[in-house]
């Protein structure tokens, strides 16, 4: 019997079964005994009003995984009117119990109607976790998503908010005939060392090329949806039957960043989640009364939930230039405020609120098969929780007006002068906040890898192969080496036996000085250097092997991750309070 069923059977409010264990600092679910009930005697007190026996203050229910340690003062659950209290446990049979492990916390970041939500719930037992797992919907997107989640690596989660009109009261929102387009899109990157995270918003009106996409049909068959050229990003989902895997592939095509997983919600999520936490505090520089979204708020701070919260994140005409880019900024402010509210003591120490939040969050989510279990969502949650709010950066893909629109600008295109540096920084796991210790460690590690004597360019012998780069890259690189860098002992060896994801330079031990010189000239990281064996070149002399991988960006373009991220206009962090204008 789960916690809620047990509570109903014994006339106990489920929320009242959660009590604080002072030994662990965690709330614990306490289930009452099914034995006959009898009144609990009041604890004896000393002359100073303190309990004479600390055990007299303990509640009668046994903990889900054992009673608290001796001396812990744990308040009894409140009972509904008319219910009998439970008898105190016998002292003679009490057994010492090991200190409880940290309570399980489920934290899900969701984006719905433009929201990123941190959700936490205390330990609720196996059955309750399975109940929550039943709330989560999953979509099989095939190879677009990873099969599992690693707590030891950096990870990227694509958060999608759709404009689909599901849920009660949402008939008037969005496109009446929408099949559920990618209305709001946030690529969340969490650093490997958990010192920082980046939430990159991708405008729905960004013009992109959507690649071919294999989808899994309800009857078990597979269908390849043909790609589309120069269409809005939001058409990567829903249009022509595209699923979230198509959106993930489009993100990779546009940014070069590979999403590991996705989380998707609709309009209803913002309403249910904000109501579950009791509202989210927002700030406005001026009063807003928007006839389109029905947002009606005064200047200054307000608490919004339900319909007003959804109206806040959907409002467009009240901000800035009344466009989608200004709405994205307001949505990012909303996310930061929500994250601050969710990490506050009022939420994390309120078991009733946590239970309601867990129910709302899991019912709102659609995820890929790799993270559909509540246990995996819990793991993701705990990893996210390690990142300090001051090091969580919100930003938007740099864009500029689409010249193809003519006079009236309706869409945008990627700003190729600014965006690539941001994409490279995220791909290189580089923080956009000031994590000086991390930057110094990265520089020191890079210097250590390339430390040692180096040859001159004229002494470098290397064979260049194409292992997944754009066609013609090997010859382009050869020309660059010989004409611009003086590496005359180089040759084009054609295609590699197999494709590789990352560029690699293999060399024999006695060729280490040559390898360091070529790595410095090409901007190869230490990780790209692979000690191994040499190969004979056309003259029968030992040479190194350079295989250009899928990460190759062109001759002369460095492949070393930047030690510091570029400056980004308009970025913000989760710890800052900002007012919408």
Task: Provide a descriptive summary of the structure in words.
The protein has helices spanning 3-9, 125-135, 244-255, 267-276, 306-314, 324-342, 345-348, 351-364, 374-385, 419-427, 436-449, 473-484, 512-522, and strands at 18-21, 26-31, 62-63, 137-139, 155-162, 182-190, 197-201, 207-210, 213-216, 222-225, 228-232, 261-265, 280-284, 288-289, 296-297, 300-304, 366-368, 392-396, 399-401, 412-414, 461-466, 489-495, 504-507, 529-531, 535-536, 542-548, 572-573. The protein has 581 residues and is an alpha+beta fold. Strands 4-17-12-5-6-7-18-27 form an eight-stranded mixed beta sheet, sandwiched between helices. Strands 21, 22, 23, 24, 25 and 26 form a six-stranded mixed beta sheet that branches. A hairpin with a 6-residue loop joins strand 6 and strand 7 (197-201). Helix 2 packs parallel to helix 8 (351-364) and helix 4 crosses helix 5. The radius of gyration is 29 Å and the shape is elongated. Mean pLDDT is 77; it is low at 2-9, 33-84 and 89-125.
